[in-house]
Amino acid sequence: MERPGEPYPVDSWYTETAHALDPFPAIDGDIRADVAIVGGGFTGLSAALHLAERGVDVVLLEANRVGWGASGRNGGQIHSGQRRDVEWTEAQFGVERSKRLWALAEEAKALVRGLIDRHGIDCDLRDGLFGTAHKQRYVAGERRYVDKLRGEYGYDQIEWVGRDDLAEALGTDVYFGGMRDAGAGHLHPLNFALGLARAAAAAGARIHEATVVTGLEGGATPVLVTPRGRVSADTVILAGNGYLDGVEPDVESRVMPINNYVLTTEPIGAGAPGGILKGGEAASDSRFVIYYWRPTPDGRLLFGGGETYTRTFPADVRAFVRKHMLNIYPQFRDARIDHAWGGTLAVTVNRLPYIRKIRTGVYVGAGYSGQGVTIAPLGGKLLADALTDAPDRLDDFASMSCPPFPGGKWLRTPTLVAAMTWFALRDRL
To answer: Which residues does the UniProt record annotate as the domain FAD dependent oxidoreductase (predicted)?
Structure first.
């Protein structure tokens, strides 16, 4: 895992193809703001943008560069729904509330597209995503799920694709069928984050990079502590996701950082007629430790797979991810791997986001569990809404239980490793 203060990962295709943004200055001395935000990813940037557009004096502190963390390193996939499917949310919360959570996820997709359109963000947005069944016994349930979304949730942009047609679309025959979601899609996440930063700064948000927050002091006015100054604000938003060590114990006990890895091949014609993913869609599968992939505009395969739970990345990220890619595309055994990188995201126990007011003056948006491209920008907007004219906008997320990991901060890692090892074994059986 990288240390704060480092630049964007040098071996990332996203870094190589980013629309460069001049650095924002580090903080220098004590400052005051209406709202102070910790973290320059999708949540923090969206909150800063929406608050600044409403005339709120907002300061955003980022330890490295905006979009440096998971927001600028992920698979770039825009999924429908929450991280948990509607059958799970119905069982937990009932049908009415499950439909509200689905509606929020639809709002989230519309927000991403709306931000791109409104601010002219060039981030390679493309529609379409396949969700694939990697075991035959999953097919019947997945087909029923498509019917449920269409019939009970009124979502007509999804359809079932049989095994042969799916193999033709993906360029691999390892899956037993899947769903094509025309309302989902994919984008260049770092360029999306950089576009949000440009828009937030233009709206009047004060952004400070290379500014590590080392502590949060309570009291009537919360104070963020940094090595080069203190920021006092009426309200603090903690949007650092998996990078909030030592700032807020409540968040650390409930939000667990894990590492995920991505590669790109040399250009192989992906996303074009005659190549794999010839329709340009992204794809992901039914593994708990998920595989996800998509074509890039220059015809590469961008593939993500494999997780680790320690503070360090594998010594050879290329080899680590390549073995997973070859499980799906053995025909690319001889393809050159041009880029490979890792990033730290964050999960919660129930895989639902932790978006709420923690206590007076302190709010959090974190723990998106792999659904951050879609839900995190909405999380930022909901927090902005709650701090201005619509406090009830947080209710659906804030009222959901988000239990701490067993053992809290210090035992959460071995607990999660044991659970993920079991799930990884289940994926293979």
So the answer is: 34-385
